[in-house]
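FW: tagging you since you asked about this chain on Friday. Here's the raw sequence from the shared folder, copied in full. Didn't touch anything.
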Amino acid sequence: MIKTYPKSIAIACLSLFAFNSYALAQSDPIRVGVLAFTHTDSVTQRWLPTVARIEKDLNRPFELVALTPSELDSSVAEGKLDFLITNALTGVSYKKDFGTTSLLTLVPQGNNEPTRSVGSALITRVDEQVNSFTDLKSLTAVSTDKQAFGGFQIMAGEMAHNQLNPFKDFKSLEFVGFPQQKLLQLVISGKADMAILPTCVLEQALSSGYIPANSLKVVLTKPTTSFHCQTSSELYPYYSFSKLGKTDHRLATEVIKSLLNIKPSDQAAVIGRYEAWSATVNDSHVFTLLKQLQQWPFVTNWTSIFRSAMPWAIVISILLFFGYVHHLRVKRMVVIRTRDLQQEITQHTQTQKALLEQTKQFYKAQRVLLTGEMASGIAHELNQPLAGIRYLTQGCIYRLSDEQTELKEAMNKAIQQVDRAQSTIKRFRHFCQQPSVMTECNLNLVLEETLSLMAPEFLRMHLTPKLVSEPVDLIADPSLLQQVFVNIIRNALDAMADAEQPYLAISLIKHPHKVTIAFEDHGTGLSETALERLFFPFETSKENGLGLGMIICKRIIEEHDGEIYAVNNLDEHQQVTGLTISISLPIKES
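HL: got it, structure written out here
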């Protein structure tokens, strides 16, 4: 059975929950952000009594935060603030993106019209003649900040209304920062022709004696009735007090009541330099100014861009025309050159096929030779221990007595197995050997084909071999000689892998009865021990080498009744600068 309770108990529970939530919310300080162009300390001192008055009236903690324009933008975007004290333009611009609501407008001292409280004044020396906005183009101007509402932004909108661009139409424009009075001294000293400042700055400087009388004036003034300062622009509302979209409306109502109760004689108004706070005023003309600033210079003004880009468009059109003519000329040349290239490609393809076939034959011969040399090396290494086993076994047989017939018989069988293994190794060695095919060949052609075969390696190392040769014909096996040349060149390239300037010189010199081929490189060279054992099998300095390359080269050269030897290249200080391998071959006639 479900038990029900009176409705009054439920209402009491909800009221208690709401009270606790409200009490918890009241413990957090209410953050009021104020826009600060100058030092934040002076801005804080001006507005702190006003925030303290609100805190006292509402009996809740408030926190005043003075922020630069960029800091204010970030804090509003991140929702860190509850209320704002800003100029009218900034407050209106936040309405679109962050849902701010203008609550009150500040009434400045000595002015009873909050809608006409701030403007921009163009201040020059008294001898400067400025009768229209067109005269501004010959002047150098200074202002405090691009985002200063009472100075530069209002005048930027005014100049945009008169088809002028302050960033381009002034002779020069410089933003020198605060305080505002120092801009007046720049104009008096002649460092600038004009200062763009908020209205009343000149009048305050004159009344305080900061500048001498009759030294500066406001130009392009507009008539005003109740405003006591000269202005060069339309007048706009003064500071506004706004709430963020997330701020509770009941709290905003209490804050409004507190601000409206401030009198001109109160400390908050005296230190804050205002008469009072009034209900929010009509800010439609602020929207008009914002629209002007959004049209220019803050967003693209296509008309201005079109006018400024017209000369460039004409130049680009001329360049494009000549470019098109050049394109047609190049296209015709490409057609002619393509036809020639196709013929060259056809010839190159045929040459490449022949070279590829030759390369296949070369690597086939290389594998066969490598297999034969490995077989010779293995046979050489195995024959010695097998011969030792045979001699030791025979020695054992000699030391056995005649009665040990079974042991003698086993020893003789072991000798038979050793002989059988040696015979098998011998047959394997003869099987892997390839007989040379001696024919009449041109040694220059063999060397040139070898260089063509190694061309990709030369290109990789940015190396152009230096070749000096004489025409030589002899009887030899061209495939085997090419095997020797490739192996020597590849070893030279490996030795120059880390060289900054690799160098390879090949000379082919003909003598009366022989020919000498020398390969000189600028590699690391060899130690004395490595040089002595260069032509020994299974001797290598490479990490993955077999140590058979140079012994193969030596066997091939000896098969041609020639000689091969190597010496280190030495400089004047007897330092090794590379290696030279020389081959001497007899010239045999067919």
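FW: Residues 302-398 form the longest helix (97 residues).
HL: agreed, and The CA atoms of residues 328 and 334 lie 10 Å apart.
FW: great, closing this out.
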